[in-house]
Write a structure and sequence with these properties.
The protein has one helix and four strands. The chain is mainly beta. The longest helix is centred in the N-terminal third of the chain and has 21 residues, at about 1-20. The termini are far apart. About 25% of the residues are buried.
Amino acid sequence: MTRLIACAALALALAAPAAYAQKKTDCKLTFSMSGWSAFYKTASGTGKITCDNGQSMNVSVSAKGGGLTFGKQTVTGTGEFSGVHTITELLGNYAQAEAHAGASKSSGANAMTKGDVQLALAGTGKGWDLGISFGKFTIAKR
């Protein structure tokens, strides 16, 4: 009987770290960036990622791509990530495709992916822009 209890205790001890390792956290991004486009689109800025597990990180953000696009803009916005195990999973390049149009003040939303990580962005901007662009959105530790 004591052997059975010892085996059960060992199984619980081994299962606890595995269950903890599977727990995912939700993270959000706030950012501000500005840029221009004339066939090639580029924008850069700064932001901060905060997670519901208490982790946070200051980041730099950039968007680059090409297509039929023209304009100049400044954007502030927010992003929501799919659940991840750690904040460092959020760093890197996200595939991006968008259509946009705006004059003076505009708003928009964009969804992108990096492997299993999903990022949904929403923002408001000032400036003017028109076009379709394809490229990448990069998040790096600052």
